[in-house]
């Protein structure tokens, strides 16, 4: 089953790179304990895996193409 999504050229990049960097800097600034780092990056890792898996099951739709 393919999901229909808008083409990437019509959207900004949606990979969670900036969010990951922000979380890293936030935890570093708070001097969070190691268990907090583990929890946050486990959740971020699961999110990254889901995003990368969705990239392979998407079907691009050009919203500006004449039908």
Order of strands in the sheet with most strands: 1-2
Largest sheet: 2 strands, parallel
For the secondary structure, the number of strands is 2
In terms of quaternary structure, the protein is: single chain
Low-confidence stretches: none
Number of helices: 2
What is the count of structural domains?
A: 1
Provide the β-strand percentage band.
Answer: 5-15%
Order of helix and strand elements from N to C terminus: EHHE
Silhouette: elongated
Structural class: mainly alpha
Our Rg estimate from Cα atoms comes to 17 Å
What is the residue-averaged pLDDT?
86
**Portion in helices:** 55-70%
> Distance N terminus to C terminus?
23 Å
Describe, in plain words, how this protein is organized in 3D.
The protein has 67 residues and is mostly helical. It has helices at 17-30, 34-56, and strands at 3-6, 58-61. Strands 1-2 form a two-stranded parallel ribbon. Helix 1 packs antiparallel against helix 2. The longest helix has 23 residues, at 34-56. It is elongated and about 50 Å long. The model has no long low-confidence stretch (mean pLDDT 86).
